[in-house]
Amino acid sequence: MQNFTIETDADGIALVTFDVPGRSMNTLSDAVIAELPDLIETLKNDGAIKGVVLCSGKASGFCAGADLGDLGRAAGSRIAPPPLSALFRRLEVLGKPVAVALEGLALGGGLELALSCHYRVAADSPKVRLGLPEVTVGLLPGAGGTQRLPRLTGVAKALPLLLEGRPLDPAKALALGVVDELVPADETVAAAKRWLREKGDPVARWDRKDYRLPGGLPYSAGGMQAFIMANATLRKRTFGNYPAPENILKCVFEGVQVPIDAGLKIETNYFLNTFATPQAKGMVRSLFLSKQALDKGDRSAKIVAPASVAVIGAGMMGAGIAYSQALKGINTILVDVSEAAAEKGKDYARKLVAGDVAKGRLSEAAGAALLDRIIATADYAKLADADLVVEAVFEDVALKHEITRRVQAVAGPGIIIGSNTSTLPITGLAQASERPENFVGIHFFSPVDKMHLVEIIRGAKTSEETVARATAYAMALGKTPIVVNDSRGFYTSRCFGTYIYEGLEMLMEGIPPALIDNAGRMTGMPRGPLELTDDVAVDLTVRIAGQTRSALGDAYQGRPYEAVLEKLVALGRSGRKVGAGFYDYPAGAPKRLWRGLADLVPAAPATLPDVAALKQRLLHRQALEAARCVDEGVIADPRAADVGAIMGWGFAPWTGGPLSCIDAIGTAAFVAQCDRLAEQHGERFTPPPGLRAMAADGRGYYAALDAA
Ligand code: NAD
User: Fold this and answer.
1) What are the start and end residues of each CATH 1.10.1040.50 domain in the chain?
2) Ligand 1 near 421 CB (within 6 A)
3) What's the gap in Å between 530 CA and the centre of ligand 1?
4) Residue 220: strand, helix, or coil
5) Of all protein residues, whose CA lies closest to atom 1 belonging to ligand 1?
6) pLDDT, tens digit (0-9, with 9 covering 90-100), for 180-217
7) Three-class SS string for 482-518?
8) Ligand 1 centroid – CA 391 distance (Å)
9) Residue 395 CA, ligand 1 centroid: distance in Å
């Protein structure tokens, strides 16, 4: 065996160390799974072995679960991964007691393996995290997790863990009964051996005659309550878009009513069923494999990250960027119009550091060092030695041009400048630069410290080296970079805009605003289009339309809803930031739709459209814009398009992203649906020629990648 070693001591206790060679973390790769039958047979048949302790040879922990590389290949080819469930069951009925020593992570299949042992000891350490995160990538724990966890804790306590996938810390795991004992770090193996010597019971509690499900079976009063609650909460959160949590719920409901072996079979059926859904395929691919590929970036570029970066503009964005840099050890010069303004920007970092120190997440010394890395100043001379300058001043072309000239005057014409503009084309901004090849867009999202996507925009003259430097910088910040070509609104803002605009089109058809926002949420978007307009700010939406109008001249086609937005601004209803927009924001109460809106928009039609039709418009309009971006060469890599959509503007994660969504519908069917929408609603739904060609050939966006 390559991945396990067995050492048997004089007491007949076999210490099995799980240690995948050449990896920092154990995963249940195909190679590991292939060794499990041998391991189990040896433990069973070796007469010298009386009991087993399972532990890890890794400092990082026990096991992070399935190897998602293997799983991703399986998801791509739709071939189900090897059945772990039966193997784990064989360990559970070995006839010898098995204890597991958990020092760090035990997630997914790793925790399921631990749950198949008869006794669990965990280190009382912040490194310990136990959980079943499968649901977050569209999967169902298929190695006994849905059966053993509820049998251990009762249904009510198990369901949130299974349905939300959040990991437990050791104290919570003990309180719930997911582990049996907590001991200081590095003492778990000794404690596991002690249990074997003193108790060493080889029978799982659910294999005993007197076993009763904690909290009661589904048809008892208490048991029924748990399912009613979980079902309602799930529906409210997911609107039926996600097969995985629904199948988990069914699997628990059916499985706990029968003996464990039958329960495990039920689980396997639901696992396979879930695995075969387009949602699982899209989610595993985008949320895991593609994101990981983008995070690793192009290692061949060999560009080192900048050590010192100046940030010009210490407003909301600049302050967040400065903090994120200092957090990752980058020396930061934070420049604003006055020292006071720059210090105000640094206050943001001070606030976050103080919070982390108070919560014990950061030592005082580390916090002070982080803050020392930010120099707040109004003096441009201080940025002379910066490796990179990120500009985050007001969204104004003339001002941004002026900043570029001032930066080059002190740092030299060779300095790389990245603009954090959210809408202004990079090629135009680069015109003020003496070396436009050194000018690039580095588009962060708000709030910078929480949003992990960075859109890197290549202007017409930006060099590949500059793109690589900007990418290395984003990666040094721990962000996921996507590279796109210049276009109005780039990729993310452009596609995101269509969601809001389609909602506004509906408003002008007299569709009730509550229905529009509910339909938006039901598609799996985090918010409805009208509430998002309020969040983004109504006046900003008006300003962007104005800029586009002046840039495009006669080619600009205004839409009727623009007049409504202008009226809202004139009425002082610029959105959430002023406490009034499409919604009212009463203090201490939930927001509610503004009644006056009815006077600004057409009356409702006699028959309201079906909500399914509204959902389709909202999703298809965005997916179509993503397709246009591919057609126009704004974005080339479908993985970047899908990951950027989910991380950048919250595009319905269950789809795996807009291009995965089109592929799952099928390009031909999608084009036909869009043609129908174009007939009903106008040419904004007309598919671009490249997509039509793909549809005619029966090709999808991932055809080339899937074949590779
Ligand atoms: P903001 O108004 O909060 O901050 C702008 C800052 O720039 C202010 O502190 C201002 O004093 C400073 N400034 C103005 N002139 C300056 C000068 N000559 N020298 C130095 N500093 C100067 O704006 P923001 O929301 O942080 O946005 C900044 C940029 O980031 C804009 O281009 C915006 O489009 C873009 N952006 C914003 C968001 C967002 O959600 N707010 C997201 C992505 C990108």
Assistant:
1) 493-516+528-609
2) yes
3) 24
4) coil
5) 315
6) 999 999 999 999 999 999 999 999 999 999 999 999 99
7) EEEECCCCCCHHHHHHHHHHHHHHHHHCCCCHHHHHH
8) 8
9) 7
Just give the CATH number of 4-276.
3.90.226.10
User: Which class in CATH covers the domain with range 308-491?
Assistant: alpha beta
**Neighbour order of strands in the sheet with 61-63:** 61-63, 105-107, 129-131
End-to-end, the C-alpha distance of the chain in Å comes to 31
- Take residue 497 and report the two structure tokens written for it: 């805009």
Architecture category of domain 493-516+528-609 in CATH = Orthogonal Bundle (1.10)
For the chain, give percent helix, strand, coil, nearest 5: 55, 10, 35
Q: Is residue 433 within 6 Å of ligand 1 at its C-beta?
A: no
366, exposed or middle or buried, with CB in 10 Å at 0-12, 13-18, 19+? middle
Answer yes or no: 443 catalytic.
Answer: yes
Q: Is there an atom of ligand 1 within 6 Å of 220 CB?
A: no
Number of helices (H), then strands (E), in the chain:
30, 19
- Our answer on whether the CB atom of 687 is closer than 6 Å to any ligand 1 atom is no
Distance of CA 447 to the CA centre of its chain: 15
pTM comes to: 0.93
Cα dist from 622 to 150, 244, 272, 627, whole Å: 40, 24, 31, 9
Residues 3-35 have pLDDT tens digits of: 999 999 999 999 999 999 999 999 999 999 999
